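Next up, a chain.

===
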Amino acid sequence: MQKGQYHSNFYGGALVCSTDIEIVRKLLEAEKKHLGLREIKWTKVSAAYLDKYMAMIKLFFDLIEEGKIKVRIMFTQNARQPVGLTREQIEESYFLLYYQFLKHGFGLIYSNDTKNPIYLRLYLDQLPDTKAKSDKFKNFIYDLQFQKEFEHANIHIRKEDIAEVDSHDHIILQCTDVVLGAMQFRLNDLHKAIPEGQRRRAAKTIAKEKLYKYINSRIRGIYPGFNIGESTGHKGDISNRWHHPYRHWKFVPGQWEYDETKTKHK
């Protein structure tokens, strides 16, 4: 998800250990089938389907709380405008930010206490660009393992383990899409939207707000006082970038200028 009124460049991901992946998939797929849902997407949330989405996301967050799934959300704040970017950096901003998200978002370099080799498998939702650009991006991801921190953590990535997939076939990606969509919805004040010519919000908008509030309540059950618009703190230990079950990252460019016109006015 890209441009919003106040926040943009939304990225989301879920991490599941190989020892848990089959049970996580089976539980989520069974619940999806029981609820009679097809593809789960934030854009499909409606008043008619709200209870079913609530049940689906309840299970998803139960698994997060049990430590079987880690979720990370990254976004930028429009008021912090990057400066000094080259034309190439602007054109490739989607991939550059995605790279930062994958490299730092899950705190992978803090994941290996045993120092035995760890192999990452990456399932990327279909990349929205040419094959040449997508392949170039995958090569950058592959090369992460040769950076000092990743070598020290004994983390490896095989080329065949970097794959583009259709989220239609991946239940974990679908549930992550709902959480990501809820954050983009709330951070950009879309819960306040009133259709042109109408006096009240649409039933779909009200349903989405209810689902967002449920998601927020589950996050606050993990972290009381959680602020969705700020980066999650480390609580004095940077390795919590890995250990925390759920985290947000408000990405701030290295060089930026503040544009007050792009902030929320109370």
Remarks:
- The longest strand covers residues 155-165.
- Residues 95 and 129 are 10 Å apart (CA to CA).
- The mean pLDDT is 95.
- The chain has one domain: 7-252.
